[in-house]
Specification:
heterodimer; A: 253 residues; mainly alpha; globular; B: 270 residues; 12 helices
Chain lengths: 253, 270
């Protein structure tokens, strides 16, 4: 079910040998789409990591109105089909959307431009980050930080030397999940990215466009690159989880 | 500094809350009569039927194989167990377009499986089998990932005791192990259902997207949105949204009962 299809993809990608694979993946349009995918994905991952940490932290340590509603909203992108997520953003930021019309008047393009891609990636990855770091933050005991203050450490020192090391494995797992999702995102992007070669074409939409135009070798080359990237992210996630479990056992949890 | 959750609310509100509320408002403004008219068109009814059919087949097949794979991953020590575990997770992280394309290369007329199937007169691509296969592929790990940890935790002692007391292997599994898998199964099945009705990227590649024939609900929403018929797109989204949110909430409820296990976020990645 899994191995055979993957081998089959390889056979198409390399059907005319290594040289033609190399030619397909180094086509200017293919390279541009791969480079855009990585750029936007890294940016989205950085923003989601910071926002996710902040939100998970606030949810744990502060009391405020509407916490459970906020939690439900954070989960919404997980529950919604990707294409619905795309439509949700389109209806808001599209030329007829309430925010889209306003921003358009001020010359800010969101839909069919890079900000739209970033927005979609932030939308779909937020819950992955928040939900991964949440259990780690739950385990942080405020007493440990207070002990550090009592021993004369500053807030920054405490954060860097006490809080951060505890959070790091969770953050790393969240980052890998976010990156894996962002690199392969398709459903929420087809309606809002516009798929303009060299400008808003990401690697998954490039693969789709090449399939539609009947160029399987060109599609296969970039598909292989995406497949390798996602297996790498998967191995990173497995490794981090195994390590976290081992550390957990050592601490008798 | 946003001590009362102001920053968190602003971020989530802008990114998720407002856009979602806006879509509900836009759909509501159309009125129930218009939404009903859009959904009772032959092509949308067919799309909904196809989506439900695919989802039901997928849940049935992948529950069966999910249990088998989980049993062998949790209980048997064999060479390449870790490799197999990672491989079963590939469909989760890979881009849906790539998942669809991978199946396309396999089943196209000159593909490894397409050729013999073509010779025996079975059409896979641009037909129901392709949509089902694509959905099976992307949901394969969901049941397995829910069950493997539970199976590993409960071990085999109780089943062995039952067998010593004269139960058959099947009875031991059915009466001893299956009841403890109940919540995990519910969760795996609801997640599979939610993912199946929402599948888009893989389906769009293999289905041919033929209106009234191989167009699922997500593909119909896509088509309506690109044709600027937003009434149809909003109506379809409301149906898909409600179904997915209910399935998701059910899955979360089942997790709550499965001794508040930590969420396995890999099963949520898409």
């Amino acid at each position: 079910m899994v191995i055979l299809p993957i081998l089959s993809l390889g056979s198409v990608a390399f059907s005319k040998g290594w040289a033609s694979f190399w030619a397909a993946i180094t086509r200017r349009e293919a390279l541009a789409s791969i480079s855009l995918t990585f750029q936007v994905s890294f940016l989205a991952t950085a923003i989601t990591a910071l926002a996710g940490l902040w939100i998970a932290w606030t949810l744990k340590r502060r009391e405020f109105w509407g916490k459970s509603l906020l939690e439900a909203l954070i989960d919404l992108p997980l529950a919604l089909p990707a294409i619905v997520g795309g439509l949700v953003l389109l209806s808001m930021y599209g030329p007829n959307g309430i925010l889209g019309a306003f921003l358009g008047k001020h010359g800010i393009e969101v839909i069919f431009a890079k900000p739209g891609i970033l927005l979609a990636l932030l939308f779909v990855t937020l819950p992955l980050m928040v939900r991964t770091v949440q259990p780690v933050i739950e385990e942080l005991e405020p007493e440990v930080e207070q002990a550090s203050f009592t021993l004369g450490a500053s807030r920054l020192e405490t954060f860097m030397r006490v809080t951060l090391p505890t959070l790091l494995p969770g953050v790393a797992t969240g980052v890998s999940l976010t990156l894996a999702r962002a690199l392969g995102e398709f459903g929420s992007l087809v309606l809002i990215a516009g798929n303009i070669p060299f400008r808003t074409e990401v690697a998954p939409t490039y693969v789709y466009a090449r399939i539609e135009s009947g160029e399987p070798e060109a599609a296969a080359a970039v598909a292989v690159a995406l497949l390798i990237a996602s297996i790498a992210m998967l191995l990173a996630i497995e490794y981090l989880q195994v390590r976290a479990r081992r550390v957990g056992r050592r601490h008798g949890r | 500094m946003g001590g009362r959750g102001a920053v968190a609310w602003a971020y989530v509100g802008f990114l998720v809350g407002l856009p979602a509320a806006n879509l509900i408002y836009l759909a509501g403004r159309l009125g129930p009569a218009k939404l009903y008219a859009e959904l009772s068109k032959p092509e949308s009814l067919h799309a909904l039927w196809l989506t439900m059919l695919t989802a039901v087949i997928t849940v049935a097949v992948n529950t069966f194989f999910g249990v088998l794979i989980a049993l062998s991953l949790a209980r048997q020590k064999f060479r390449g167990r870790t490799t197999m575990s990672v491989l079963t997770d590939v469909p989760l992280t890979v881009s849906p377009v790539v998942a669809g394309f991978v199946l396309l290369t396999l089943y196209r007329p000159d593909g490894w499986l397409g050729k013999p199937l073509e010779a025996s007169g079975i059409q896979v691509l641009n037909a129901l089998p392709a949509i089902v296969l694509a959905t099976l592929f992307v949901t394969l790990p969901l049941v397995t990932r829910e069950l493997t940890p539970v199976l590993a935790q409960i071990g085999t002692e109780q089943e062995e005791a039952a067998i010593t007391l004269g139960a058959s292997r099947w009875q031991a599994f059915w009466r001893i192990t299956l009841p403890s898998l109940r919540h995990g199964l519910t969760r795996g099945m609801t997640l599979t259902f939610a993912r199946a009705i929402g599948e888009f990227g893989a389906a769009v590649v293999v289905s041919g997207n033929i209106i009234g024939q191989t167009q699922t609900m997500t593909l119909w929403v896509f088509q309506e949105a690109t044709d600027f018929n937003y009434a149809g797109a909003y109506a379809g989204s409301v149906v898909l949204g409600v179904l997915s949110v209910v399935a998701f909430a059910w899955a979360e409820h089942a997790r709550g009962r499965a001794h508040r296990r930590r969420r396995d976020l890999l099963t949520h990645i898409r």
